């Protein structure tokens, strides 16, 4: 795995160090590094990079406001001369990537040389599918939990957003070079699962459709019957409660595991359609049976901030006393979140002895960090990407020192669970695991709604993920029929599947996770603007160029003459290609896939402008033609890396 810093980081480091030397020649007491920002706008108006250091130095010298711009311009001119002198005498190889510094209106702009374009092509050619990896890594394993849908129904559109965000984060970190483990938490002991199972066992009807869809229908029917029983005679209510409670205990013991697994296998069919895969299914019943939850509670009970309340609203409950923590501990990030809550304290064990979801999540979180005992595991299935999926199983599994023990954990869970997740993280801290606390992150995401209004199966509005995917594929198929009349039915199906699943994924990723999404078909499948089909169209365009010229897509550095890169569109495209590394790093640091979707659109736009303005077939010389073909090859490679990161599927025509 390449360990070097990104091209952009190397340039910025060189510029900062060199410029600081120049600054000290003017102000010996200067103790700050100069700020360098990079630009890849369509005009390259400010060069490759610019610095506002002259403005800062003018302010540092307490220049009157009315004179700052004038003084800054004088300082910038002096810095440009000093920097260019230093540049000409430097033996640092990176110096050859910079042509000169130019003073413009009080700012210092750095113009790249032809060698910079040469190094961009060279790095992409060498690293290929690894291009994007970075030397800033989390040591150890990064674990991401996502999806985690109750196993009593099919996914709905909100679950789909969860899974797509979680999968994309995993792809981003893997592209950056991290060791990533993806887990899907199976809450098989909750009341909803017991109630769905109650109806299924009562009816004893075998499905003629996918089992998760069938079980979801059973759950809805069961809910109607349960409501009738609850509004009826006391004897019926007691019998119902006893039966549901009994099923809950049996689920904890793993008795109905085979039935629940049928539901899981149905649910993950939608995952596979979206290119989403897992490493492990972690079952709540196994966490309980392995004693992990009891270990976690033992650690919690040893804390001075956990106690059994003897009176008040929480009488008889074991409670995490967050208010006491804030009173007794120095101010920290815990206070920042909880201090404005009327009652920050959280019940862990109810007065009837049953644990809350948060309490069980604390045990799971501690296990993720390798702080508790382990579970047993067995092979579950071979996934369509040929990757093995494992499952925890305290009944039939064996010890396997592979899962858990993460050094960093990301939980992709809806924003309505922010408080609960903060409690889970705090539990790590008060139990004496500050590193685990600091390396745990809640990736919160907002709701998804349909443009037509509130989602409702009864009203015929699409809600379930399989319906969304079916509808998207049908719409894509109709568009392909109009534009590709010679496609066979088999080709229509395969290509519409690629386009539709990619379009749905991109639609879920192109807006900040914190923003609510309004799902609109008119935007998802369009060929212009912010959509997956637009990016796929750019990719197909690049392939067709090589196909028309009948040449290999392997980058050949000997065909590239950097000094012949003259047109603005060529330069902008090459600089955009180089910036993938830093956008990927920034996206991982901020847990934000929109950093990649935004970059992807800019890259697609830069390529399309290059395509329109820089003729290849009618290039002014053979040398320029070869140059542009190598730029196209580099674009194909980076687009493929971007597509892999976002989960967009490759097509060779559109």
Describe it.
It is a single chain. The chain is an alpha/beta fold. The protein contains 24 helices and 16 strands. The chain has helices spanning 7-26, 53-60, 68-89, 114-127, 157-176, 191-203, 211-230, 234-252, 257-273, 284-289, 292-301, 322-328, 333-338, 357-368, 418-430, 434-438, 465-483, 489-509, 521-524, 532-549, 568-578, 580-589, 594-613, 622-646; strands at 36-38, 49-51, 98-104, 107-112, 141-145, 179-186, 280-283, 306-308, 318-320, 346-349, 377-382, 388-392, 408-414, 440-445, 448-450, 517-519. The strands form four sheets. The protein has a seven-stranded mixed beta sheet, with helices on both faces. Strand 11 (377-382) and strand 12 (388-392) form a beta hairpin. It is globular, with a radius of gyration of 29 Å. Mean pLDDT is 92; it is low at 456-462.
Q: What keywords describe this structure?
A:
654 residues, alpha/beta, 7-stranded mixed β-sheet
Determine the fraction of residues in helical runs and give it as a percent range.
40-55%
Rg estimate, integer Å: 29 Å
Which structural class is indicated by helix and strand composition? Answer: alpha/beta
Cross-sheet strand order for the largest sheet: 11-12-7-6-5-13-14
Number of strands: 16
Mean pLDDT: 92
Total helical elements: 24
- Principal-axes geometry comes out as globular
Task: Compute the separation of the termini in Å.
Answer: 34 Å
Low-confidence stretches: 456-462
Largest sheet: 7 strands, mixed
- DSSP strand content: 5-15%
